[in-house]
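Course assignment 3, question 2. Fill in each field.
Student: A.L.
Task: Predict the tertiary structure for the chain below.
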Amino acid sequence: MHRRKIGNRWSGLPRDIVTIDVPCNWLQIMENSIDRLHFEWLHIRFHNLALAQSGQEPRADPSREIASQRFADTYEETEYGFAKRTSFRRPDGSERSAILPFVFPTGGQTGLPRAPCLQLRTPIDDENTRQYFYTLYDLEIEMKARLRSQLGDEILDGNRVQHLQIPPPPLGEPNYSLLLSNVYQDVSIVLSQGRIHDRSQEQPGSSDKGVMLYRSLLRRELAKLSDGKDPINVFREPSPNDRIELPRRPKDGVSSLYPRAAGRPSGNVQLWSPFLSQLERLGIDLNEVLFGAGSPPP
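Answer field:
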């Protein structure tokens, strides 16, 4: 069976992999990532609470900040799964949209425009999931040349992929300093549902359209298997199926609302990035790496 590549225009770039083993069913992780409201409530409002509880200065009135860039989400099926389109207002009042692609059955692209991250949720068994964060770093030419003598060709050209396994957040009383990371925020939420969430009493609402679309795709593709057919994203010929072209995220998306942690430009998986950790030890400004020379972080 042919293995199809995922990504676009990313050959020859540095990359790394971070993994975390989450003691719950894979479907909870997928549905959390799809959920329309989880970004606002978990990664903005709860993040503000975590800042206060860990003794740091909360962001000023996150409700007003959210309203100033109020976003609406729509979901559309694609050849590789489906995509969430987020509409938002820029500070000048104009409207833009960003696309978050989900690769059926357990993948999704997140991250920053210069650091796209492919997330894969791989079932270990019914009650445990290994989550992969595969991130590439779109360095400017000048930055790559500057680092060449310090890091070497293998890392900078993506031929050596560094890996780090991180532990899940500890059970018991919350450690709010850890919960400044949106990775740990996500993991803590899905763990709070138990190892296998009971959906028999749920009452989906209008904000659950993405989750309902995903469940309908699962049922449809499982029915194909029952009929002896291949589900989507099974490719048996090498051509023309060399790669899945995923859309790039705009540089002026909703990232200005995204949490930051521990001095890093992002509170996402970049907090544990082996590649970015190397650059920090070399005294490199990570804002310059992730947002470009002379560009302040959004």
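Instructor remarks: Residues 5-196+205-291 form one domain. The longest helix spans residues 209-226.
Grade: pending
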